[in-house]
Amino acid sequence: MKTAGGAMSRLPFFLFLCLFSFFTASASTKQGQVYIVYLGEDAGAKSKGAILDDHHALLLSVKGSEEEARASLLYSYKHTLNGFAALLSEEEATKLSERTEVVSTFRSDGWWSPHTTRSWEFVGLEEGLSQGWLPSGAHAGENVIVGMLDSGIWPESRSFSDEGLGPVPARWKGVCQEGDSFNSSSCNRKVIGARYYLKAYEAHNGRLNTTYAYRSPRDHDGHGTHTASTVAGRTVPGVAALGGFAAGTASGGAPLARLAIYKVCWPIPGPNPNIENTCFDADMLAAMDDAVGDGVDVMSVSIGSNGKPPRLPDDGIAMGALHAARRGVVVVCSGGNSGPAPATVSNLAPWILTVGASSIDRSFNSPIRLGNGMVIMGQTVTPYQLPANRTYRMVYAAHAVVPGTPANVTNQCLPNSLSPKKVRGKIVVCLRGSGLRVGKGLEVKRAGGAAIVLGNPPMYGSEVPVDAHVLPGTAVSMAGVNTILKYINSSANPTAYLDRSRTVVDVKPSPVMAQFSSRGPNALEPSILKPDVTAPGLNILAAWSEASSPTKLDGDNRVVKYNIISGTSMSCPHVSATAVLLKSAHPDWSTAAIRSAIMTTATAYNAEGGPIMNADGTVAGPMDYGSGHIRPRHALDPGLVYDASFQDYLLYACASEGAQLDHSFPCPASPPRPHELNYPSVAIHGLNGATTVHRTVTNVGEHGAHYSVAVVEPMGFSVKVSPTSLAFARTGEKKSFTIKIAATGKRSRRLKRKYLAGSYTWSDGVHAVRSPVVVLVA
Prior knowledge:
Blueprint: H1 13-25, E1 33-41, H2 48-60, H3 66-72, E2 73-77, E3 81-88, H4 90-97, E4 104-107, E5 112-114, H5 119-123, E6 145-150, E7 191-196, H6 199-205, H7 223-232, E8 236-239, E9 248-250, E10 258-263, E11 265-267, E12 277-279, H8 281-294, E13 298-301, E14 303-305, H9 316-326, E15 330-334, E16 353-358, E17 362-370, E18 375-379, E19 392-396, H10 420-423, E20 427-431, H11 437-446, E21 451-455, E22 473-476, H12 478-490, E23 495-498, E24 502-505, E25 512-513, E26 533-536, E27 540-543, E28 562-565, H13 568-585, H14 591-600, E29 613-614, H15 622-625, H16 632-635, E30 640-641, H17 646-657, E31 682-687, E32 690-699, E33 705-712, E34 717-722, E35 725-728, E36 734-743, E37 755-763, E38 768-777
Parallel strand pairs: 6-10, 6-13, 7-10, 13-15, 15-16, 16-26, 19-20, 20-21, 21-22, 25-29, 31-38
Antiparallel strand pairs: 1-3, 1-4, 2-3, 5-14, 8-9, 11-12, 17-18, 17-23, 17-24, 19-23, 27-28, 30-32, 32-36, 33-35, 33-37, 34-36, 37-38
């Protein structure tokens, strides 16, 4: 289970699974489990009342009485799609799934969770821009409405001031739903609407524990406030995290956009309700249905599935996004925090813009001076400092545990594992892995340690997420902790002191792919490359809930207005804001055109001109970052776009999963192959010979444009684009071309079952429209 800050902290999945099962089993009612019954496209000219009657009638066909049928209904989806969520037994769900009007019936499980300044200046770095980087054509997203599906909002934050904003757009149809500590005055001309959804959550978990969550759109957790301010927070000077780190002016990417809040994520009952959140399909689908009906233009969803991704017809986010896209709403989702393992990326539908996470050019340096004179550079945002130049004894956690601690976690500083006698007054070296990073600091403090040094195991390499620990401390890379442990093991009296920490900018190289960012290939359909792009997601500063401490640990009573956390949850709103800017500048563009503009203008190079790297020092590729790192300014003028329609997506589902997603569109006997979807990237799975791919581009630039193609071929394959030039007489004109990909010669065994990457780029001397080409060697 990912945490609210994405990679901020984690429980071992097996431990979470046991806890989740234990605490939720008793919540299942005699009425059954929550199922979503999906009926396809909305019911057209039917009134909302008539649609509701149809849903009741379907339930009555499997229930014993009309009263029971009505009582079992949780949500009726009727704005953009046709369907409902209800409490059903497995037998009742099976009967409904057999009816001809039903497309799919699936359980609404809580196996979804949130994926959790300077970052905006950084994404404009290649233009040499400062805080005034926003192009005039985008108007800072003015009057574009972005819907946030998350844990709610802290409306009093200065990031959500409506000072100077005009009236709420007349097309807005939403509401400001009142509840605990949230009334109509909590909304304004910035936060123009707010709703909350927890029927499926309570059906599964029982009544909400309001100690850890507000029964309202108010954010107790902090995650939703963080993502909302990253998308559309106002420009706020004099902002810093606890301890004065990352001081400067905070701003969302689209500071004049309007926010609509849809609270769908709630605490998991158990030992860490402050830390772990869950989100149910039925609640999220209701929110997405309402959001489109309310009039949002962009949806930002920093939420994803855990474990094996569901089939598209059984995926609430995918189905909600499909019908939102048909109505012109761009849906942006986080890709997940299960990297760097392959095939871990989530939110895989091609009508969703899926985002990975990378770093920016800022660090929080905290030198560690060892007793032998060596200096190891750590990173931290803890506000506590040890006395300057005072030396402390240093101990490795594995040498200081209480008897009986399991051998495989002796170095993890898990709760109650450290011996106070062995660590009191010392700097304790712990390793990341099992348990919460901030929890390890709490354990060191409990045992009387003076400070914590948190080291990376091999899987995390050089990537160092920072934390506001409850005691002095810092975190170090794998190489750093190895040097420290070598010193401890070779010294009879190892000592160290921690220098003062400070914020450093212009760090090189940047960006670097975050190790936690989930990687491709696409586990459902490898012929569609996912993630689509990457954006800043490591150590991001944004607004925070004042009901939540920076660590979210019980016993941490510190209150902060802004906080630094990491995750694809943080990169997703960067791309959402970019979509808002494009919506503002090009209101007539389709959702596919906006997605294409963001993807084809992304870069595979860092700010210094070298290739984007992974945190372990290897060169990153499309399976890590998709089309590349976003460049919002370039996306506003992409030159050419790859467009796609609702029907194209239905054909894709027919080909990819044999799934008919809408009764109005039966699957043809031979639908186009999945890689024939007019997507801005090309992925070929298991090629052993040759194949031809078709693409069509639309000119969104000037009249009389003339483009030529340049190709970078994957190792061992030829890529031939025909024709090699495209001439456009007018804006809006379309041109088609083919891409023939063929194996050439023999390939070594070491390349078997590996993805090899190349690209093709259309250029007119002003625009460079780049598409990655990825081939899996058969």
